[in-house]
């Protein structure tokens, strides 16, 4: 199957410090890829390169065969239409209702009539099991419900790729599983490709087809969840076991 995202030998320094060191990674269409690793290893930096919010010092990123690095501003806007993003804190506007938050990308970027926008919003809220919550305000929702609203908003323009930035952060284990299961459900219902950035290893084993572990600015392990589970790499073992001693913490 063809890769929908290709990260090719990407390197990036921030403040003179190498964050990404020649990373190469690909994501196939319809796949759920989890990018895992402890905090501060470059996971969020990598996701910003995928959508062109950062440009690498060297290397390239291809989305559906198009270079994010070489794209003009207009071309980059077209490439970004392939993406929906679920932000770590949901990033809802507190002054808008649930329905208004979900509708926002359609209001800002399309000329669809109000009635059609309402139909699409209802459909996406149904996908994330939030029927009947259209008029609620973000302050009235639990953390997990806000994440689901964020997912509905990410899906509202029919993206081919959804990026999840630490989707389980701040959630209890039950709600974390609910959100992660939704990622799998969205793939089954829409065929969307998903990239999940997380330090929660349980996410990998629950829903991902493949996983890549970052450490030291490099991909140190890549494969199926079972292959990661069976890895003998000391850093991977420490991450899986949650040990306080090992290469992840020894300086």
How would you summarize the topology of this molecule?
Layout: E1 3-14, E2 17-28, E3 32-36, H1 43-50, E4 58-63, E5 66-67, H2 73-80, E6 83-86, H3 98-109, H4 114-127, H5 143-155, E7 161-165, H6 173-190, E8 193-198, H7 201-207, E9 210-215, E10 218-223, H8 225-229, H9 234-241
Parallel strand pairs: 3-8, 3-9, 6-7, 7-8
Antiparallel strand pairs: 1-2, 1-4, 4-5, 9-10
Helix pairs in contact: 3-4, 3-5, 4-5
Word description of this protein:
By secondary structure, the chain is α/β, with parallel strands linked by helices. It folds into two domains: 1-82 and 160-251, Rossmann fold (3-Layer(aba) Sandwich), CATH 3.40.50; 89-158, no CATH class. It has helices at residues 43-50, 73-80, 98-109, 114-127, 143-155, 173-190, 201-207, 225-229, 234-241; strands at 3-14, 17-28, 32-36, 58-63, 66-67, 83-86, 161-165, 193-198, 210-215, 218-223. A hairpin with a 2-residue loop joins strand 4 (58-63) and strand 5 (66-67). Helix 3 packs across helix 4 (114-127), helix 3 packs parallel to helix 5 (143-155) and helix 4 (114-127) packs across helix 5 (143-155). The relative contact order is 0.17.
